[in-house]
Amino acid sequence: MADSASPFAEPPSCEATTSARHNSSVVSRRALILGSAGVVLGAAAGCSGADDGATSSAPAGSSAAPRPSPTSTSATPTRSAARSPAAQPKPRVTGVIAKNLDVPWGIAFLKSGDALVSERNSGRVLRVSSAGKVRTVGEVAGFVAPSALGEGGLMGIALAPDEKTLYAYVTTVTDDRVVTLSLAGGRLGKPKAILTGIPTSTHHHGGRLLFDREGMLLVSTGDAENPSAAQNKDSVLGKILRIRPDGRAARDNPYGNRVWSYGHRNVEGLAFNRDGRLWATEFGDQKADELNLISKGKNYGWPRAEGRSDQPGLVTPKVIWSPTSSCSPAGLAIVDSTAYIGALRGQCLFAVPLKGATAGKPKAYFAEKYGRIRSVTAAPGGTLWVTTSNSDGRAEPGPNDDLILQVSL
């Protein structure tokens, strides 16, 4: 994965196409989401040809997972002072932070309480205040926007602890890559590639970035519509990678390369709980979408298994949604002891109670009210920032789409 001078290309990822937000299937989809959430550890909407779930066999302890970063609110779960950890969450939208955005994908909070937000289709990085002031910090040079119903573009972002450098996962003409950009003077500098050569396709790009407590960067990649590569530990496709800030493999990785876990189809959500356990959302193909507890060196099954499996050596998901038309799990945030998951085709926010290495039944909120939900990020003060994804070509945008919603718990 040597650095290359090639420009940005776009990778494949599969979030099944959604028609207009208010079509003839609204009632039946709402009934499926609300009526089936919790069945088979959660039956919610997913994405056919996109992402399912698998079963988990061995719980991962905090000793097997990288620890969450204490310096980044996108990496560290926050705890609301307004309620005890045992209290049931009551998510409610309490405001619109920003509107008329172009597929907001990644959110990284600054110590000031403002956030940097990436736009998938425009390549812009925005600075958004809690009061709703939006200004452009810059555009990532060399980025390539997705075409038609394709995926890729400017995806996940993560802030270095000193807030002087932004890390971004982007599509170029030739590949997907991780780049760094200076934030000196409050403006975005030129991208410097630290990890290149991630193969691309129309769908399945992965794209989430997250720092752990050791200062290593976790990078999720999709299988780029090449399923067999997910089982190849020498390939970067279908993996969660763990790299040093300069792009080299972390020293304690299990296989002597950048791979931390493998057998993934398309992971778009990564988050730590307060015990340091790493969780990930994963799109299934047609059978099941997944919420997985990630352990060092483990095999999460794709394409040998989708959803639950009793095959030796495969980790089974903690939660599955079946069929995939009920969920398509994208962004993930953990606050107190609850995982919050954005559902693209499910068009809702799922709340999943967590207890140690176990997960309870998902409960759907805001079903069909705001359309496709993509990113979910823990914000200062114990709230969530939640983005819609209705201008990504798979839905009929509302008059102010796309939005960043403030969700109180």
Round the mean pLDDT to the nearest integer and report it.
Answer: 86
Biggest sheet architecture: 5 strands, antiparallel
Number of domains: 1
The CATH architecture would be 6 Propeller
What percent of residues adopt helix (DSSP H or I)?
A: under 10%
Helix-strand makeup class: mainly beta
- What is the straight-line distance between the termini? 42 Å
Structure, explained:
The protein has one domain (8-408): 6 Propeller (Neuraminidase). It has 1 helix and 26 strands. The protein has one helix at 26-36, and strands spanning 8-9, 92-98, 104-109, 115-119, 124-128, 134-139, 154-159, 165-173, 176-182, 192-198, 209-211, 217-220, 239-243, 259-262, 267-272, 278-282, 289-294, 319-321, 329-335, 338-343, 348-355, 358-359, 363-365, 373-379, 383-388, 404-408. The strands form 6 sheets. Strands 1, 7, 8, 9 and 10 form a 5-stranded antiparallel β-sheet that branches. Strands 19, 20, 21, 22 and 23 form a 5-stranded antiparallel β-sheet that branches. It has a 4-stranded antiparallel β-sheet with strand order 2-26-25-24, with no helix packed on it. It is globular and about 50 Å long. The model is unreliable at 1-28, 38-63 and 71-82 (pLDDT under 50).
Secondary structure elements and pairings:
Layout: E1 8-9, H1 26-36, E2 92-98, E3 104-109, E4 115-119, E5 124-128, E6 134-139, E7 154-159, E8 165-173, E9 176-182, E10 192-198, E11 209-211, E12 217-220, E13 239-243, E14 259-262, E15 267-272, E16 278-282, E17 289-294, E18 319-321, E19 329-335, E20 338-343, E21 348-355, E22 358-359, E23 363-365, E24 373-379, E25 383-388, E26 404-408
Antiparallel strand pairs: 1-8, 2-26, 3-4, 4-5, 5-6, 7-8, 8-9, 9-10, 11-12, 12-13, 13-14, 15-16, 16-17, 17-18, 19-20, 20-21, 21-22, 21-23, 24-25, 25-26
